[in-house]
Design goal:
By secondary structure, the chain is α/β, with parallel strands linked by helices. The protein has 3 domains: 15-107; 172-223 and 241-305, no CATH class; 319-425, Rossmann fold, CATH 3.40.50. Helices cover 53% and strands 7% of the residues. It has 22 helices and 7 strands. The protein has helices at residues 15-32, 41-51, 61-69, 77-80, 93-107, 111-121, 123-132, 134-141, 147-156, 172-178, 195-201, 203-215, 231-235, 239-258, 268-281, 285-292, 297-305, 332-335, 342-349, 374-391, 401-411, 418-425, and strands at 188-193, 218-221, 262-265, 294-295, 325-329, 353-357, 396-398. Strands 2-1-3-4 form a 4-stranded parallel beta sheet, with helices on both faces. Strands 6-5-7 form a 3-stranded parallel beta sheet, with helices on both faces. Helix 2 packs antiparallel against helix 3, helix 7 (123-132) packs across helix 8 (134-141) and helix 12 (203-215) packs across helix 22.
Length: 433
C-alpha cells in the first residue's frame, strides 16, 4: 500500500508510485460505490472500469485524466467514505487527485493553462489592483458574454458566461483601520482572517461580523502579514506556491493565537485549508496550533454561548426586519469540516427558521470559473437551483461566497451571509464603506 499524500514524502512525485496508488484507490472505490452521486468523477470512474470488465489496470490514461479533471475538491468524500484516514486503507480521494495535479504541474502545463493558473492564483495582486480600479474593472467583468469577458476567456481561461463577483470600492482592512470599537465590555478576543472575498469583494460581511462579535463582548483585530490562504495554488497542483502562502499565514496567525486570540474565518474553503491542509502540507507545532484555534464565525459564537462563563445577547431589537423563514445553503467545505450546521443553529437563536439545501454549487475553489469546466459546473449546480426555487423563500443565505455566486447565476437571487442576518436582527445598521 502506498497512501502518500504529503509532498515531503520522497514517493509523492514518483509517477510509478502514483500509478500504483491510483489503481489501489480506484479499485476500492469501484467496489464500494457509496460516492456514486457526489461529483462527476465517480460515475466516470465506475463506467470506465465497467467498460474494461472490472479491470482497473486496463483503464486508459485518457479515462484516468477525465476522472482527475472532474474532481473539483468538494471534500464530501470525507463525509461519506468509510475508508478515509485513520482507516487502515487510508483512502483519501481528494488529496490523491491533488497529487496528480502536483505531478502534472511539475512536469509542465500548456501555456494557456499556466495563464489561467497564474490569474486565479494571484488573488491578492488581482484584488489590490481591482479595488483601486473597481468602477472600470466591474464594468469590464460584470456582463457575462460581453466582448471583454470573451477576451478574458481566450486569454486567461475564465468562462465568459460565468457571473463574477464585483470588487468593492474599499478593502475591509482599510475600513477596519478607521473602525471605532464598541464601548461594550469585552471578555474574548478574536483575530479576523478576512480572506480574499471579504477583503476585496464583500467587506460588508466583515463589517457585520465585527458588529455582531462586538455586540457579544468579543473584540476583533485583523492580523498583520497574512495573505490569501493559498487554496487556488493547491488545487492547481502548485505545491511550492501554496506552501509559501501557508508558511507566511501560519507564522502570522500563530502569533495571534499565542497572544490569546482565536482565528475567525468567514469563508468555508479558506477555513478548511487552515484547519486541515496547513497541518498536512506545512506541518509543525505552529500549523497545528493555528488549526486548533481556527473557527467558522457561527461555530465560534455558539461555542461562546455554550461556555460556562458567557452567553450570547438574545435581545434582537431588529428582529422584525429579518424573515421568519429563510433558505439556507449548506456549503460543501463546511460539511467537510464536520462541525454541524452552526449557522442554522445561530439563526435559530434569533427565531429564524432555515429550510436547508444541501447541494453542491459546482464552483468549489476555482474549478467552476474555468472555461473548460463551465458547462459541467452548471449541470452540477442544477439540483441546487431547483431546491432553492422549490423552497420559495424570499431570502436565501449561505456561508460560502463562491456558492452564493453560483446561486445568483442559477436563480437570480443574491444570497446573504448568515452573519448579516444576525446583524440585522440585532438592529445593527448595514454600514456603508
Amino acid at each position: 500500500m502506498s497512501a502518500t499524500y504529503q509532498p515531503s514524502d520522497p514517493a509523492y512525485f514518483d509517477p510509478a508510485d502514483l500509478d500504483r496508488e491510483l489503481d489501489r484507490v480506484f479499485d476500492l472505490c469501484h467496489g464500494c460505490r457509496l460516492c456514486f452521486n457526489l461529483c462527476p468523477s465517480f460515475p466516470t470512474l465506475f463506467d470506465a472500469i465497467d467498460e474494461h470488465d472490472g479491470e482497473v489496470g486496463d483503464v486508459t490514461a485518457a479515462e484516468r485524466d477525465q476522472v482527475v479533471d472532474e474532481c473539483y475538491q468538494c471534500k464530501l468524500c470525507y463525509v461519506k467514505c468509510p475508508y478515509v484516514p485513520p482507516h487502515e486503507w487510508e483512502l483519501d480521494f481528494p488529496r490523491l487527485m491533488m497529487r496528480v495535479h502536483a505531478q502534472r504541474h511539475r512536469a509542465g502545463t500548456p501555456v494557456k493553462e499556466k495563464l489561467t493558473d497564474q490569474f486565479l492564483g494571484r488573488t491578492d495582486l488581482l484584488g489590490k489592483v481591482s479595488v483601486l480600479a473597481s468602477p472600470v474593472v466591474n464594468r469590464l467583468t460584470g456582463s457575462p458574454g460581453s466582448l471583454s469577458r470573451r477576451a478574458m476567456e481566450k486569454t486567461v481561461g475564465m468562462a465568459a458566461q460565468r457571473v463574477l463577483p464585483p470588487y468593492a470600492r474599499q478593502r475591509f482592512t482599510t475600513w477596519f483601520k478607521w473602525h471605532k470599537p464598541s464601548s461594550r465590555p469585552t471578555t474574548k478576543e478574536a483575530a479576523v482572517f478576512p480572506t480574499c472575498f471579504i477583503e476585496y469583494m464583500e467587506p460588508a460581511i466583515g463589517r457585520d461580523l465585527v458588529g455582531v462579535y462586538e455586540r457579544n463582548g468579543i473584540s476583533c483585530s485583523v492580523p498583520q502579514g497574512t495573505k490569501c490562504c493559498g487554496a487556488p495554488w493547491l488545487h492547481q497542483g502548485n505545491v511550492a506556491e501554496f506552501e509559501k502562502s501557508a508558511r507566511q499565514n501560519v507564522a502570522a496567525l500563530a502569533e495571534e493565537v499565542r497572544a490569546g486570540k482565536d482565528v475567525i474565518v468567514a469563508q468555508p474553503t479558506c477555513a478548511y485549508v487552515l484547519k486541515r491542509d496547513y497541518p498536512l502540507y506545512v506541518g509543525g507545532a505552529d500549523a497545528e496550533l493555528v488549526a486548533e484555534h481556527t473557527f467558522d464565525p457561527a461555530e465560534y459564537l455558539l461555542r461562546h454561548h455554550r461556555s460556562e462563563e458567557h452567553s450570547l445577547d438574545l435581545d434582537f431589537p431588529g428582529r422584525e426586519s429579518v424573515p421568519d423563514t429563510v433558505t439556507y445553503h449548506v456549503p460543501c467545505h463546511l460539511q467537510a469540516q464536520n462541525i454541524g450546521l452552526k449557522s442554522r443553529d445561530l439563526l435559530k437563536l434569533a427565531g429564524v427558521k432555515c429550510d436547508l439545501v444541501q447541494r453542491c454549487s459546482g464552483i468549489d475553489g476555482t474549478w467552476g470559473y474555468r472555461q473548460e469546466n463551465y458547462d459541467l459546473a452548471r449541470k452540477v449546480a442544477a439540483p441546487l437551483a431547483r431546491e432553492v426555487r422549490a423552497a420559495g423563500n424570499e431570502v436565501v443565505c449561505g456561508d460560502c461566497h463562491l456558492a452564493n455566486g453560483s446561486i445568483l447565476q442559477e436563480t437570480g437571487t443574491k444570497p446573504v451571509h448568515p452573519i448579516q442576518l444576525m446583524a440585522r436582527a440585532y438592529g445593527i445598521a448595514e454600514e456603508q464603506a
